[in-house]
Amino acid sequence: MIHFTEKNVVLNNGRVLVDFELDAFANLQIEVDLELSADLEIVIGEVLVCGDSINREPGGFRKVLVLQKSMPAGKSSFAFDIPLHQSPYWHTVTVRTPLEAGSEVMPFRYVEINGGQGSAKVIRKELYGEFDDSAADFKSSSSNLNRIWDFCKYSMKATGAFGIYIDGERERKPYEGDAFTNMLGDLCCGGSSQTAYATLRWLFNSPTYPTEWQLLAPFLLRDFYLYTGREQDFKNLLRLLIWNFKRLMQDAGSDYLLRDGAAKGDARTSGGGRRDIVDWPISERDGYEFGTVSLVPNAYWYGALNVMAELTGEAEYSIWAEKVKAEIFRTMYRPDRGLFVDNPESEHTALHSAFFPIYFGLADDIDREPLKKLIRSKGMVCSVYGAHFLIESCYNCNMSDWGFELITGDGLRSYNNMLRCGATIAMEAWDNSLKPNQDWNHAWGGAPANLIPRCIAGIRPLKPGFAEFAVKPQLADLEFIELKHPTPYGAIELKVKDSQITLTVPEGTKAHFQNMVLLAGTHQLEYKK
Prior knowledge:
Jelly Rolls; Glycosyltransferase; seven-stranded antiparallel sheet
């Protein structure tokens, strides 16, 4: 999907800064009308310095390009030549730029023109994926939360430009970890089910190296089917998934647990081998102590086995899941403290060893208070990727107040910090200082695009295509929320204020609220915190 944005400026032989207000994958055309011939310098980039010029050394993979152009007097036009994208990693197979772009694109927000006397029309040709801006909407009594919603929703739109969920400008390729957050956000906000399908097809044919991310594949397929209802595509992908998953089962030890592929000498390459990762970047692991066997990847393993049982109806996966759970509790749970540890030889409990067991259901049958206490005490000591699981875990165990605090916080590791830095698309990491080589267009940093609809508003599909869905709002201290949520059947509309809920259920669907099943139509319900 192509969108043109034009800005008209006066040139006065000095520096003129054009701000398109939002970063976007785009290319550029400039039309000038000069009084005299002139040597122009044109700069495009994502980051400002001193507030009025483009930072020419933004660091990492924040983008900037400079073009020198000699122009005659009078009217003329030219395109800014953007070099073909090239990953810094030789082994990366990148996603191609769609032909409709006409030429290569890069993410930029600002254009700077130096020199020349006259006028210029600056035309940014923006590339977006299929996205319905009107399909989803959210507002609440918190202007802070509303701003974060707008930021994350636009992040889903902007990063869908390539028809496949990419991990950002640096590599431009899909990873399961990125796709997990990206797909949920995209489908909650008005994105395309075809982009989701294309991404899963890519990943199921070429799994990436992290153990945990390979184990997200069942969750990706489950969510794809629940949100889109595309049954034949689900069946096609399920065959690929089963084949990949059986390989993982063959890789498990006699105790049914997974070992770190790095410890076995597996190659760290896409499509072959794997390595435990826990979180990324390395500095965001809260001192996690790795072992040959580690808690976090095996928590994923337990969750993935259960989802495989759900997707296939085969009891073998459930039997394996129970064996995995028993071995985890035997070797990595400390009942005297009520906590899990990072690995069987460790006594350390990283934040990740608290929230991942909650997220994947390992902690469902135990007293979760010690885990919840540790989560509150640690704060946001994880990456933007880990934050998705951390925050959702809070909402899954009656800690909506803390989940809300983590979404709307103002510290270094916060969505507000991304905005403070000047980003308009979610960043790869919380701050440049935490990942100096980061790019500023990573949808995995926009988890609130799905956390707000799924956790705060509590709208989640229960049957494929939203034929049935759950409604469980958790407002914490919010005074009201209003949500419009897309489904294949039409929009779900939810308003919660004080103790009153107004819910519109689309024709052909059913809503589950508390112990009630609600048919199509508008319902007035009582909300109790």
